[in-house]
Amino acid sequence: MLDGCTPYPAEFRERYIREGYWRPETIAEALVSSAKANPARTAVADHRRRLTFSQFLDEAERFRACLSNHGIARGDRVILQLPNCVEFASLALACFELGAIPIMALPALRRAELEYLARLAEAKAIIIAPEYRGFDHAALARELRDAVASVETVFSIAPANGCIDLASSRGGAKPTTGTVDPFDVALFLLSGGTTGLPKLIPRTHADYLYNAREAARVCELNETSRILLALPAAHNFPLSSPGLIGALLTGAISVFSQETGAEEIAAIISRERITHLPCVPTIAMSLLALPESDRPRLESLKMITVGGQRLQEPSARALRRIWPSLKVQQVFGMAEGLLCYTHLDDSDDVACTTQGRPLSPADEIRIVDGSGRDVAEGESGELCCRGPYTIRGYYRADDRNAEGFTTDGFYRTGDVVRRDAAGNLTVEGRIKDQINRGGEKISAEEVESHLLAHPSVSAVAVVAMPDARLGERPCAFVTLRPGTLLTLDTMRDFLTDRGVARYKWPERLEMVAAMPLTNVGKIKKADLRREIETRLAAENLSRPGLPPGGEGAARAQTR
Per-residue pLDDT for 559 more than 50? Predict the structure, then answer.
């Protein structure tokens, strides 16, 4: 195992191999085998070009030669920072074939994050698109090369000053030596970074192939499928759940998109006859808002798999109602490993109200209280997990590992869930997403699910705002549907009718034109918490003596 990574204990490694979860096969070997079985079929496409599986192998080989000729070898860490494009797939395979370890970096990352990652991993190179959405990535990459001693080379998928141009590479590779170990690290994913700079998540060839194959099976991805990758491909969800790797393994077509707007996605689905759409709830909800005349454009779509955040029940049922032939699937998981899916033969209640059950029979689940004791069935607690595709530790992060993993190898996810008798999980939020109102714990996600059922509400986020007396009170940020209104009083009447306990009611209402979102469409609750804290502080300054959250806690604000 790569130095700085936590290996699986020998008894678990032997079990996973013996029981067939892990195979002695690298990601490159598996992808090449699939490509050779489907040479003339389209493998990958974007808005500029498309490649058959044979052409995909040829391009990956040409890129592999260029990387090798410029000193990239087995074990070298390479930052791969590309937008959604065909080259992302070809370069990922090139790295896997070399045994180089790609660090899957998002296009939105800038110098602070990239320099940190490069130093931590001792990255030898960075691969970029020279410009994306008006930002000069080539200039940033050159700065990174000058600032970090280990970074020797900048590769670019288009001509750029000071960069090796991959587009004009012609091959002629130096021979590579040694073989790639299927049970060693294949790639680094990035943690969500909610507690600061992202952590590096080491995924092995064996565990990641199992992850992708099983996800493809549960999502019914096969050689007739066409999957739209609109979320950033460096994320675990669009990369292998089943994502790009699952599609390549099954002979499906992967279509990359750099757009996430409903109109653009509908146009691609119609043009490319897309069958599978992995997305986050914000995208799913934007499709619901399409004019009725546009709905036939989604007729080729067979399955929408929604993850990243919980898909609330009203949205799930609306998707099934508007497109009766569309299979709506929920997925809950993490780049650290565990994936849970609703299954296609589940009842509507299970599919619309839960986030499914673990992918593998070897997944081990514990749901614990604050003292680490297992809770009773149906009670809420923190989800802890281990299994054949869940890591045993972050890369070079001893302090974080001591906090995030139990001594017997369970990963503490920080997610609050409850499990029903059939093993299905319902996600109730994050431990840090709970609001402690004078000792009463309020699940923000529970309140959000009620508010989202209101006909005026398009999007909602409930966050904690500071309060001098109670510690915290709930505040609701709401985006309204066009032409509608909502007041604090009408919101409270609505929650009363739904039987929501009074202490859970939001005590302040903030109207926003749009929610702050991450690059994969998750609501940035940390931004909203900071915003309400700033607003309360300004109000307190204008009215000396007013305690935090006092008078302002029970009124609606509009901006």
Answer: no
